[in-house]
Amino acid sequence: MEKAQDMPVNNQFGIHYFLDTLHYRQEDLKIWLPVLKDLRIGWIVLKSEKNRAIPEDFLKSLLKEGITPIIEFNLPLRSNIGTRDLKILLQVYAKWGVKYCVFFDRPNQKDSWTDNNWAQNDLVDRFLDQYIPLAKFALDEGLLPVFPPLEPGGNYWDTAFLRSCIKSLVRREQNQILEDLVLSAYAYTHRHDLNWGKGGPELWPQSKPYITPQGSQDQKGFRIFDWYEAISNALLQKEVPIILFASGLANNPDQTKTTNEEIKKNWFNQKLISLLIHTQQSIDLENEVSIDPVPPTVLACNFWLLASEKGQSEAQHAWYVGTTHQNPYIKEMIETLKQEQKQVQTAFEKQNKSRRSDPKQCLIKHYVLLPDQEYGISDWDFDQIKPLINKSRVTVGFSIDEAILSKKVTLLSDQNYYSNETIRILKKFGCEIEQLQKDGTSIAT
After folding, report:
1. Helices marked H in 358-412 — which ranges?
2. Which residues have C-beta within 8 Å of that of residue 9, sequence separation ≥ 6?
3. CB 13 within 8 A of CB 40
4. Where would I find the H helices in 39-174?
């Protein structure tokens, strides 16, 4: 059952975990799970080896808190990848509740291939020859194989590479892969403002692969998703969900040394993006520029980087070094997010309270709130509410969001079915609460 205070929180907010596979111990979980909960993180990118699983307890603890893991393998692009261990791993991850996995990284970059493989013809088809078997196996196990992120621009221009890949999947009649396609992208800013490239090729038709005329804009910015979605819409006639990685960084952190001024700008951009996805509203800046919110087709907006050990090259971008805050910018961002979340929650509760207090908007007179349990409703429980259904026109359901809009709320006899938080919310919204007794009578609470 959803809690009312959780409903306004948007779950696009994600983050990359450590860049290694060494921080999946119980001690790490005790340190970082409270941090993730405090930040209201909805998604997390986890590095995985191809022959050793991330511990079950670690993954299930995240899933229990509503945090969706994205498993990142970064497999080498060569034709002789051993898949036996990987297939076993995918079966295990699916069994534990994982849904999303990414097999490769930047297949449009020369550095991702051996010199010999890169120089050969038909690069797109040779990539798909490796991607398709793994994607099909993942789908058979109930996983969603995320199409790998491309280097924006890149040695093989990313929009051209993506377009060719989708065309080839259509030609090969890979209908299952296309039906469940999830794209991904590196949402670097490339030192542009967050509106750069907004509207995609429809607004910037003069921009072509490798050519961005002066005065025009391209996909090399935070709104890269506008360009990728335009490609999927044109070729598949449907909107395809997309996951963003390294959101708000200026460039690939592995390729360039970042100055202090650029780091400050990265923090500022991450703060703005965080506000966009939490408030779902545009942001007006001092220079009269308005930044649009992130559309719902973006499943997750993952920031770089939750944490790093001191002395590591990625530490300059990490939100935490060791277990401490990286710098005042992340502290400010966390406090701002908390304040925004409180404001959204308060507005949500006020809206529902006003509906509840207005008899014209109180459309539900009597609501029977059923407990949301894995095994469903027992015959005994159903027998309790039969007299109410026969006697009066009650609304029956599992939603506390509906219940708080009703004048009277009836609960089943077993008080253990309902948390103290549920009772508190009902009382907060002024609902008249009654509890059914085992003999069929009801008493006010």
Report:
1. 379-391, 400-403
2. 40, 278, 341, 344
3. yes
4. 56-64, 84-95, 115-119, 123-140, 158-171
pLDDT one digit per residue (tens) for the chain, 445 residues: 333 333 333 489 999 999 999 999 999 999 999 999 888 899 999 999 998 999 999 999 999 999 999 999 999 997 667 788 899 999 999 999 999 999 999 999 999 998 888 988 999 999 999 999 999 999 999 999 999 999 999 999 999 999 999 999 999 999 999 999 999 999 999 999 999 999 999 999 999 999 999 999 999 999 999 999 999 999 999 999 999 999 999 998 877 677 888 888 888 899 889 888 888 888 887 666 789 989 999 999 999 999 998 888 888 889 998 887 765 666 776 677 667 666 666 665 565 555 444 544 445 778 888 887 655 666 777 777 778 777 777 888 888 877 887 888 888 876 667 887 788 788 877 788 988 876 555 555 5
Q: Does domain 4-349 have CATH number 3.20.20.150?
A: no
Residue that is written with structure tokens 């040779």 in the block: 126
Going from N- to C-terminal start, the domains of the chain cover 4-349, 364-444
- Residue at token pair 């609960």: 411
Q: Under CATH, which architecture does the 364-444 domain have?
A: 3-Layer(aba) Sandwich (3.40)
The number of beta carbons lying within 10 Å of the beta carbon of residue 199 is 14
From the number of C-beta atoms within 10 Å of its C-beta (0-12, 13-18, 19+), residue 96 rates as middle
| Helices and strands (H, E) in the chain, number of each type | 14, 18
Give the pTM: 0.76
Contacts of 196 (CB under 8 A, 6+ apart): 189, 190, 217, 220, 221, 222, 223
Q: How far apart are CA 218 and CA 204, in angstroms?
A: 7
CA angle 337, 31, 93 (to 5 degrees): 95
Structure tokens at 296: 């719902």
9, burial (CB in 10 Å: exposed 0-12, middle 13-18, buried 19+): middle
The answer to whether the beta carbons of residues 169 and 199 sit under 8 Å apart is no
Name 366's Cβ contacts closer than 8 Å, sequence gap at least 6: 388, 392, 393, 394, 395, 406, 407, 408, 409, 410
